[in-house]
Design brief:
The chain is of the alpha+beta class and 259 residues long. It contains 8 helices and 11 strands. The chain has 2 domains: 5-132, no CATH class; 137-257, Trna Endonuclease, Chain: A, domain 1, CATH 3.40.1350. It has helices at residues 5-19, 63-69, 80-93, 111-127, 137-151, 193-208, 227-236, 247-257; strands at residues 21-24, 30-33, 47-50, 56-59, 96-98, 101-106, 157-161, 174-178, 185-190, 214-219, 239-241. The relative contact order is 0.08.
Length: 259
């Protein structure tokens, strides 16, 4: 097949122009209507404003982050791994944020490309919400720590704990030591197969050392751990929670063990 490139270009331009329109809102703003939408069907909000220097600026008037706030804690998007990812998304897209508004400076000559660039940036920001459903390891450990401190008094928790008065204790660290009803709780977060193997080694070491403790193992996704690794871990571990999303199970087992 041989394309008629001039005709194809003409039709493509007409098609794109038909999908992108400018209208004036009752409030006097210039809104750019695009075919871009969030997963719930709501349209991206894109507005055009003139800058003092005579250029133009695209803005969402804060709609994107407000849309995220409906089902997410925006505070989490500004700290830790999520905060770093948000900063990277905005920086790589050339977009800045001011008081919750996303902004992109442009010129009239480059307005078409800037609209696509701005839409892509909004999409990437919104994609960060999927970290709530499929956590990367960094956010899993952050969320685990937040969940623990939400249920147990801070003075009863020690993170990166080394068992005192024991040889090579620093080589066998515990993610969290929590005051327990029967004995100290050694709590571990397990996001990967390698971490599962490491926790197996640590638990075996302290069991051989005759240290009295209860263990609680929280997985990012227990189904992702190979069966052989999970079997070895089960032999030395105590209570387990298959996923941090299993919040009721997590809550029940923490309350059961913690003092």
């Amino acid at each position: 097949m041989s394309f008629n490139l001039p005709l194809l270009k003409e039709r493509l331009c007409k098609s794109l122009c038909g999908e992108v329109q400018i209208r004036k809102t009752p409030q006097g703003h210039l809104q750019i209507a695009t075919p871009f939408t969030f997963t719930d069907g709501d349209s991206f909000q894109v507005y055009l404003e003139e800058t003092p220097a005579g250029g133009v600026q695209l803005t969402d008037h804060g709609h994107t982050l407000m849309h995220l706030s409906y089902e997410n804690d925006l505070g989490k998007f500004r700290e830790g791994t999520r905060g770093t990812l948000l900063d990277q998304v905005l920086s790589n897209s050339g977009v800045s944020e001011e008081q919750g508004k996303l902004l992109l400076n442009s010129s009239l000559e480059n307005l078409g490309a800037s609209i696509l660039q701005f839409g892509q940036a909004i999409t990437r920001v919104y994609d960060l919400t999927f970290l709530n459903r499929a956590r990367v390891a960094g956010t899993f450990y952050e969320d685990l720590k937040e969940a623990i401190y939400g249920l147990v008094a801070p003075e009863k928790i020690q993170s990166d704990y080394a068992v005192p008065n024991q040889a090579e204790a620093d080589n066998y660290p515990i993610d969290f030591r929590i005051e327990g009803k029967r004995a100290p709780i050694f709590l571990f977060g397990i996001a990967t197969r390698d971490k599962a193997r490491l926790v197996t080694i640590v638990l075996e070491h302290w069991l051989r050392a005759m240290i009295d403790f209860d263990s609680l193992l929280i997985f990012q996704d227990q189904q992702e751990i190979p069966r052989a690794d999970l079997a070895r871990l089960s032999n030395v571990g105590g209570e387990m929670v298959a996923s941090l999303d299993a919040s009721k199970d997590f809550h029940r087992k923490i309350i059961k063990l913690a003092a």
